[in-house]
Amino acid sequence: MAKLGGYMGKILRVDLTEERITEEELPEATLRKYLGGTGLGARIMYDEVPAGVEWSDPANRLIWMTGPLSGTKAPGSGQYAVTTKGPLTNLFVSSQCNGFFGARLRFAGYDAIITQGAAKRWVYLYIHDGVAELRDAGHLSGKDTWETQDLLVTEVGERQASVSCIGPAGENLVKYACICSDKGHVASTNGCGAVMGSKKLKAIVVHGKAAVPIHDKARFNALVK
Fold first, then answer.
1. What is the pLDDT of residues 35-59, one digit of tens each?
2. pLDDT at 196
3. Which of the residues 37, 84, 117, 206 could staple to 65 if both were Cys, CB 3.0 to 4.6 A apart?
4. Are 74 and 125 in contact (CB under 8 A)?
């Protein structure tokens, strides 16, 4: 894919059943047609999740998706969208969340994370500077979201890391459970935290030093100002 301003050019696919992580590219035509985290998330869900798949089925997708402004100087650009099939309706949901996670996912080198399958044990996903790995999260089981975030920031040794995670409600598949990041920011719609719990994914930790490519920096900076 030719480098398109506003995109890192890579998405991360995580198969939790196989504990396999791969990188993919999205065609430029797709990025231009389905704008932003919600648009791309809806496209991926439509393509990959058949109508009969239940919210707790391993075949359901749970997607963290950024938009072209995420991680730039634009106001509010730390946002991200979580898209999935939620338990309250068993239908598509896109839940928006503020904070720093969306920007720091970009700084880690990726536009999005697509998770599928279900892990056999509690795990967390650690992404930094274009590298991703699944780690054991057994020691985080039962911890609330603030405890989880504090423990993981200390564990990875990076104060600028952002954590997107669930607490006991998500672990126990409470149908209105949320996904929380940067402590005060919540993806709260349609129980996406329960979907994360059904996949035994406790948290995602991101940080990095990459910069989002801008096609015309001078014009962009002037518009932001």
1. 888 899 999 999 999 989 999 999 9
2. 98
3. 37
4. no
Residue 106 three-state SS: helix
Long-range pairs for 60-63 at CB < 8 Å and ≥24 separation?
A: 60/84, 60/85, 60/116, 60/195, 60/198, 61/85, 61/114, 61/115, 61/116, 62/115, 62/116, 62/192, 62/195, 62/196, 62/199, 62/201, 63/112, 63/113, 63/114, 63/115
**Cα 197 to chain center, whole Å?**
14
Q: Provide the 3-class DSSP secondary structure of residue 165.
A: strand
- Collapsing DSSP to helix, strand or coil, 212 comes out as coil
Q: Which amino acid would we find at residue 63?
A: I
Considering the entire predicted model, what is its pTM?
Answer: 0.95
Contact 221, 175 (CB under 8 A): no
Strand (E) or helix (H) holding 43: helix 36-48
Tens-place pLDDT, residues 130-160: 999 999 999 999 999 999 999 999 999 999 9
Q: Two tokens at 32?
A: 């231009």
Asked if 77 and 102 touch (Cβ cutoff 8 Å), the reply is: yes
